[in-house]
Amino acid sequence: MPLPRTPLLTPRLLLRPYEPADAAVFFSLLHQNRARLHVSFPDRLENVPTAAEAPAALAAFAADWHSGRFYVFGIWLRETGAYLGDICLMPQTSEQAEIGYYLAQEAEGQGYAREALAAVCEFGFERGQARRLLIRCFADNVRGRGVALSAGFRLETPPVRFAWFRNVYTPGHIHRFVRERGNERGSE
Fold first, then answer.
1. CA separation (Å) from 107 to 14, 85, 113, 158, 163?
2. Can you give the pTM of this predicted structure?
3. How many domains does the chain have?
C-alpha cells in the first residue's frame, strides 16, 4: 500500500514529493553539482544527463511512490522556497529501509541534512512501518558520518572495500550506519 504524498515540515525545511513544475530546479542542482555527486549518485546523474530528461525522472519518482517502491522528497528552504536537494526512503524488506540524500554544495554545513534526516527517519518509522533504517556513506565522508551519528544511527560494520554502485570505477571503503526503532536521536 503506497503512503500518502504528504509533505514533511521541519523548523526550516519543507520536504515534499516532487511535482512536474520542479523539473528545471531539479536538473539545475544536479548539473551544477555533477562533479561532486558522480561517485555517490551515478544512477541519478546517468538518468538525468540533460534538462530534457528531468520531467521523466520526476514522473518515475511519482510512479515509484505510488507503487511503494521508493519515496523521494525534494528539500526546500521554507523561508525562501530555495531548492536545496533531495532525500529518499527506499524500502528493502518489510522491516528495513535505506535512506539516501544529497544537498547542493552551497547548502552543506548548515544543518539542513540533519534536519531532513530526522524528518525522514520519523516518516520511515511511523508511516513506513520500518523497524530498521540504513545509511551508507564512504568512510572518508566525515560530514556524512557525522550526520548519521547525530541522528541516532550507529556504525554497523567496519568499512568494506567494494564498488558501491555499478558505475563506481575506484571502489572505496563504505560505512553502513543503522538505526532501529526506539533508538533515540543522538544517543550514539
1. 14, 8, 9, 29, 28
2. 0.86
3. 1
